[in-house]
Amino acid sequence: MSDQNLSYTIILEKTSSSYGAYVPDLPGCVAVGDSKEEALQLIQEAILFHLEGMQDDGQSIPEPVSTSETVSVSLGRL
Q: Which residue segment(s) compose the domain that 23 sits in?
């Protein structure tokens, strides 16, 4: 892999016992950790592993295109 830096958006989901993380731009790239910090570390490792596998299979590395925003809503409007 080249010395290119790519910044992929990840989605974190908290469950009752863990945190899940996935990468919308890399279908199938997921990680689960006991804490948010662990999930973030594991998804970073999963991204590298995923991209190395793609490269080994002769696939092109997808450019990050997903973004995220947070939207606030007022329940008083319901």
A: 1-58
